[in-house]
Records
---
Amino acid sequence: MDLLSSVAQTIAKGERLSDEAALALFESSDLIEIGRLADQVNRVRNGDRVFYNVNRHINPTNICALSCKFCAYSRKPGEDGAYAYSIDEMVVKAGEAVEQGATEVHMVGGLHPRWKFEHYKDMVQAVKTAYPQIHIKAFTAVELDWLARKARKTIAEVLVELQGVGLGSLPGGGAEIFHPEIRDAICDTKVSAEQWIDTHRTAHKLGMHSNCTMLYGHIEKYHHRVDHMRRLRQLQDETGGFNAFIPLSFQPFQNEMGIDRYTFGYDDLKTLAIARLYLDNFRHVKAYWVMLGQDIAQLALQFGANDLDGTVIEEKISRMAGGRAGMAMGRSYIEQIITKAKRTPVERDTLYNPVSRPDASPRSERISPNAEQSQAVLLREAMNKADCGHKLQLDELLNLAHHGSLHELGRLANQVPERQNDGGEASCMPILSLNLNNITSVAAAIDTLSTAGKACAAKYQVEPVGITIDLATPASPQASPAEHDLGLLLELVFACRHSFPALDLSLLGVKGVWRMAQNEHVTVTELLTCLKQAGLSRIDSSPHESETDLTQKEIIQLHRQMHAAGLCSTAKVELSAPMHGSGEPQWEAFLKRIMAFAEMAPVGGPLLALSIEASPGSFVTTSEYLRAVALARLAAHGIEAIIAPLARMPTLSPASGLGTALSQHPAEKIASLCLHYGASDLGAIDVEKLSPIAVIDQIRAAGLRPLVQATRELGGRQESQPFAVNPDLRHVPRLKV
Ligand code: SF4
């Protein structure tokens, strides 16, 4: 019996997962099946409800006596950026939280060398006295140990005194990784694992609940994660006092760990899912959006997590370490992303009691049990049909879009017979890009490409495999559109083809070609024939082109003309969704466009791929995007590749304003996941904007073999070749059209 079946059987029998099984799950790359099992277990325990709370983080000080290696937050007294709030300031912040409807303040910070235990007590008392309705969740086991040592009291005495002035529960921080091999390496001056566990045991015995965390994605190995979770499971067996388990993904910046990248979304989701399966005595597994980013946190709701944490308002600790999810999320936005993951948002207090508010958004009506039953039958029929490799009709695909589980969609998408790279591979295409509007001379453009190609090879040890000439419309209407200059374009294509004979050569702009033909008073076919003769291999849809400029029929006609001229093409299909609120994407229009492309494409024909994108201005969440990728794979019979273009993937996490060190594209968190839900390609990577290594790493992180791929016409590539420029072809004759 394979691993996943045996885990499923263990769970079905109500038995506990062994450490060995948990470790094997970490080592497995079957993300869909692990996610599906975790989702099932979570649904049995929590239904489709997802909790969040309205809370505020208040970090009283970042001045800390310790120096944990992974910490970007702490400062020494007098150091640049050191701060300490007065008790009055804490009360003001708590007041702001109450005004915004918070039911909880979460207070954790550094171990201030000059603050006495009484100061901490006064802080709790002042906040509680001013706002008796608020729940104070404060002080990690590390802070409590510090306070106990300062006050020469036991942990129990400290807790009783703090409880007496208003402390409600404990957060789960400071656990990091319990195993001494790792703990000694990253935070040797912190409380030991045993002390951390003992502090929480004491709190539980005093009737206080707490959370627990695990900091992963740095130097620990999978077996350290399992060891960590085993110790938590044991304490939960003993006391039952943990509210939630919260895996914390490592934030890579401004610390001494020497790690320069975020955890992969693939690892985040697997860790959450395994936690849900292994920690059978925990009701709640939290997807802490502050560290995971909103995209992964939303997806986590389908991988066993049932809590998104809260509005947070002012988070400093992970932000200083490179956290890029922002400092706050509004209540309605949290509800929207939960609803768009097809779950029901429930506001909770700290102890997971539902909170009702007069202004709560109305819950959507449930459909009748009969309708639900017939819908389930139709869904099963569609899935059986897809399982047998049969084409699905529009109504069946729509049923899957609205009601199918993400994991089922992924599983079905991975069985489509035509799909490219079904041998455990995925591709991407490192390219050099030129914007036709910026070309002053062909010779200068060739020099620029040559320099950029060599720089890429030197920097990343990866050779670009293609050149893309972007026919983008000029930003200003006054600018002279290069689309008018067919002579220049042909000269450039000719020069590129002869200067870089081994590279793929493509144009970006299906509609640009159409406009150019109009402007130059030639037919599209004449234009395409010239481009082919000059050496062009392919034409791709441009991200700058709106899908509404031309009808679908006209676009299909353009692709046919390209193919008749001997050119390959790729097309983009956009998913639209209402810009505000939790409305469903327009699945029908999306699927119809995919099916229209599929109809025109013979298997292995010149329509190489469909690129799945979100319409500009649409609110398409990650969970919806992954669903769209899987549906595209199911609907696009005859087309080999579905591209999830990393450079243009919709993400919920803000990308900007976080400092120069944070140059990674937020989609790098989710790209690896698309490869398990029907995509086989992460698209063209402009090597001057995005690191090809980072993209190749995404593919490896998904447990797949990376292919650096050029158009099939050139034979595809599995290895890079020396980046060569033909020195005799700096000057080319002006071509006549
Ligand atoms: S992690 Fe906590 S204890 Fe360690 S240095 Fe940072 S603030 Fe201090």
---
Amino acid sequence: MAIKLIRRGVADDPAEALKFICPPAFSGGPIDPQPATRTLRRNLDVMIDLPLPPAVAARTRALKDKIRLWTIEDPDLPQDQGRTFPSPLIRTVQGDVVQATVGFQLDAHTIHWHGIEPTPLNDGVGHTSFEATSSFVYQFATNTAGTYFYHCHKNTVLHFEMGLYGGLIVDPLNPDPDSLNQAPYPTGGPGFASANVPGFPGFDPANFVVPYDVEAVWAVDSFDSIWHLLNHDAFMQKCDANDPMAAANFTNDGILNVFRPDVFLISGVVSVPASSPEVSPEIGANIQDPRVAINAKVNQTVLIRLLNADYLIHENILGLDSVAIAADGHPFGVPPLNRYSAPVRIPAGRPFRTTSARRYDLLVRTPAVPGIFPFRVKFIDWISGKVVHIARTVIKVQP
Ligand SMILES: [Cu+2]
């Protein structure tokens, strides 16, 4: 006998509709606490002014020589490491139960653990749960090794743009329990990634892990400098329990339907135009900053964790052959879902695209001879299809 499911729209459920518009505030937690295997702390939102190189500052729409960012601080690190953009990387181990104590310095925010799939009350999406004030302990399990990120999910379009995000990596165990290098691995390498890559140096087919020597995390983003002058609640619908849809609730100033980025970055490093303003598309100078440029040796394995932290489409071109071993925190061809996917080989020079919030984990084997190999990302306007900027960096392969 068929079971008839009745799914009501929010129009039939005024309380649910109102909650979506006016998420309740809550603090405390954790809800349904379990024994934690890892604890960490974060604070929202800590302001940083990111200085802009003169060539970038001169052409920003806001005409500013620095850009205001809101970040998520790690209060357990010295300030110069704990207050960064992107926000400090979180590393956990596959199988962890994590409790993250999150403080809020101004007003209400949330943290959404993107891709992790916690319980709804720990998922940090205000509209379907609550916004947190003062402090909340989020609890989640990190069961699948891969690349994730965390971000604020209040007035999301603005708060994510303002910089309230950071990377979240789930490391698989080292198959050698006697090794000195156990998960979580040092950022930058060496370590192990979940993968199914027969024939790749060091691949362990019993445990579906592959060792890497060097690791890079590339969070590719762009800013519209005008947005960075806005207030916390800009463009949010006002909360009116009696008449939520009244026109008067939509009078907040806001311009979030117009995104014209004028600052382009990889992992917080601004791409400086190398071409004159008349050249289109504008091409950035090679980024040499060690937070971005990769230094490896011949015959090594490099793992690149690529995140589209942007509202533009990215077309990525790597100057070395690579294998995409995972997307969005899910390794291809690795049990238990091994029947449904397989790694993808990407020959050097072949473009591949990412859209907002997508992650690719790319495995690169450096050649036997030294060289300098390019990485380019084209920032593509999703409406016009025009390339608005090309950021560049390099993989340096040394003897
Ligand atoms: Cu926020």
---
Amino acid sequence: MAKEKKEGKSRRELITIGSAFGLMGLAAAGTGGAIFKYMFPVVSYGTPQKFLIPVDDLPDVGDELVFDDMKVVVRRHSEEKVAAISLVCTHLGCTVNVVETGFQCPCHGSQYDSDGLVVGGPAPKTLPWLEVKVVPGGQIEIDTGTSLPENTFFEVA
Ligand code: FES
């Protein structure tokens, strides 16, 4: 009796082909996962939008204090009222310097008065005044992500 030759693929061939496709699938999944992982950074860039300062560190009445790292000046109008003004130039974002007449940008020469209103140079608008909040623990929180009209003071006492 003669053996009949089977039509199609043998079991061994099917297992080999299946294994090859399985390995290719695993490689594709691994590569895709690695690419997907690098699409989302695990670090944040830039400075945080909010920062805290102890109420005890506020400037004296009529004085102001520059927080260089946060590019903010805090001004104390009275015992109870303070304001925070951004030191980020509204032209192209350089940090302005506090000068006797107000603020001056070292990059392209924009000048602002003591309330941050533009008095010269290419700056298109007033320096933003920022939100100030009293938070528990004897601290105030300054939000550099807000932009309020000039002369916006907040109660801190
Ligand atoms: S960035 Fe300040 S004047 Fe250009």
---
Amino acid sequence: MNAGFIGLGIMGQPMARHLRRAGFPLTVYTRTAAKAEPLLAAGAQWAGAPAAVAAASDVIITMLPDTPDVETVLFGPQGVATGLRAGKIVIDMSTIAPAATVAFAQRLREQECEMLDAPVSGGESGAIAGTLTIMVGGDEQIFNKCLPLFQALGQNIVHLGTNGNGQRTKLVNQIICALNILAMSEGLHLAEILGLEREKVLPVVASGAAGSWMLQHLAPRILQNDFQPGFMIKLQQKDLRLAQEVIAQFGAEFPGTALTYALFTKAVEMGLGEQGTQGLINLFKKSHQL
Ligand SMILES: NC(=O)c1ccc[n+]([C@@H]2O[C@H](COP(=O)([O-])OP(=O)(O)OC[C@H]3O[C@@H](n4cnc5c(N)ncnc54)[C@H](OP(=O)(O)O)[C@@H]3O)[C@@H](O)[C@H]2O)c1
């Protein structure tokens, strides 16, 4: 099975590397060509545009920031859709709006091609380790056909039903993650205000009922003043916006999500958008009026 990969960012680079290591012939494209160099050295082929990736591949994977990026790569000039032939499969592993993914799948079906939405969880470290959780929406037979690709990237790979259900599940994941990040930030900020030794506080609270993925992976970075992105604040803010849009369709009240979205938006406005999500704590340091 020839694989194509578009979007070689924090997640896409290590994911594409796993596909090569698993032996899939691989064609890649990303906006900043230099980012493809390590993959080309590992035997991947460069394509000059998304259409060329589609022409060379049976399955085309996209890992891009947001809904408009996926739309441009799929349907823009020199987009994937212009290079497709009937029977090819598109897998979008970005986190985007569920309604858009359903519409994209419909447009591709008109070209006799199938699409899966397959967003992931596990962060940069999960992508590097090849241990991502993968939440898949779309036709079950197509899912089964693509399973060997997914198995090269992750460990917990679940088919959740029709197109859009992967993205819907990812939004559930993201509101839980974001509220956890807020909880971690406030907890560590309180420890600091109280004059506690955070190096001692962290292992104690992480080993009790407050323990979480965030405390395990992100809190140590806060203590080291390391705000490099594994997952950028602006992308977490984007995910909360997507969740808010879906919630609004049901007229439901999600006060924690609304508050967390407002705080991540404030962090973006304060110029923290390119920090990792652990940088949310800097919001409290820079402003005590929240
Ligand atoms: N980071 C995480 O921990 C994490 C975890 C789970 C899910 N996600 C989701 O995964 C997706 C990617 O996240 P990321 O952290 O990898 O973001 P990222 O580092 O910003 O990577 C996105 C990549 O897409 C490329 N790109 C953007 N527009 C493009 C276009 N029109 N054509 C070709 N390439 C384009 C970017 O361009 P360049 O080549 O110019 O850099 C970049 O390499 C997002 O939807 C995010 O929400 C991220």
